[in-house]
Amino acid sequence: MRTLSSQARGTSNGRKSGRRHPLATVSLILVGLLTTGGAYAMFSSTASAETNTAVTQTMVDEGQKLFAANCATCHGLSAAGTEAGPSLYGVGAASVHFQVGTGRMPLAASGPQGQKKPPQFTEEQTLAMAAYVASLAPGPEIPEERWLQADGDATLGAELFRVNCAMCHNVAGAGGALTEGKYAPALGGVQPVHVYEAMVTGPQNMPVFSDLNLSPQEKADIITYLQYLENNPSPGGADLGSLGPVSEGLFIWIFGLGALVGVTIWIASKAN
């Protein structure tokens, strides 16, 4: 009896020791789901990355061809620069899109600064060359559309523009003369994307306004202010070219006082 009881207890203990914990099945299911989901996510991201790389590489290859045919004479086949043109390493896609999109590049003739003119390349070709230059070294990127909608704070944009830009571009964005034959161009009719790109790349004598100087939202506010100026005429009537108070005051002194002197002489001659 004792032997049988011992065997029974052993069998019973063996069965208990061989049982799975109630949570073991749930744990196995969770592990399986996590493994499957992770593998699927990795596959999907890899496939997406391969697709994006293929599209980007196509643009880069096309941009390299366009660059070699149109820009390498001054900037070198590898864009490392020559005596005729600077290196483009690190200028980023934004600089290329600005310079080529505004027609400043390729240069028509050497001078103090590149002149704005009708662009020689389509938007697709410009983006391709920008992608190629951006692939050489990191640099400022073409801004996102959300910063270019001119739906920011125009009042804040006006204040930021007066503090950071008006000394060269005039408070109304009419432009102004600089030293050595250079000038700050008028900003009327300039596309918002080119205004933003100019701020982050600093073409010609313009300083660079990084995100540490002006946040993307503050740049968007400045664009909003410029669009407001363009869409709303001068409330005072004739703006006299928006030359500023000094030039406008000089205009009044010359023509206003000249007219008064002329009227005075005319009255005096009639009295005699």
Automatic annotation (TrEMBL):
Positions of transmembrane segments: 21-43, 250-268
Residue sites binding heme c 1 per the record: C71, C74, H75
Domain of life: Bacteria
Any Pfam family matching the protein: Cytochrome_CBB3
Cytochrome c domain residues: 58-137, 152-230
Alphabetical UniProt keywords: Cell membrane, Electron transport, Heme, Iron, Lyase, Membrane, Metal-binding, Repeat, Respiratory chain, Translocase, Transmembrane, Transmembrane helix, Transport
Binding, heme c 2: C165, C168, H169
ATP-binding among keywords: no
Subcellular location: Cell membrane
Protein name, entry field: Cytochrome bc1 complex cytochrome c subunit
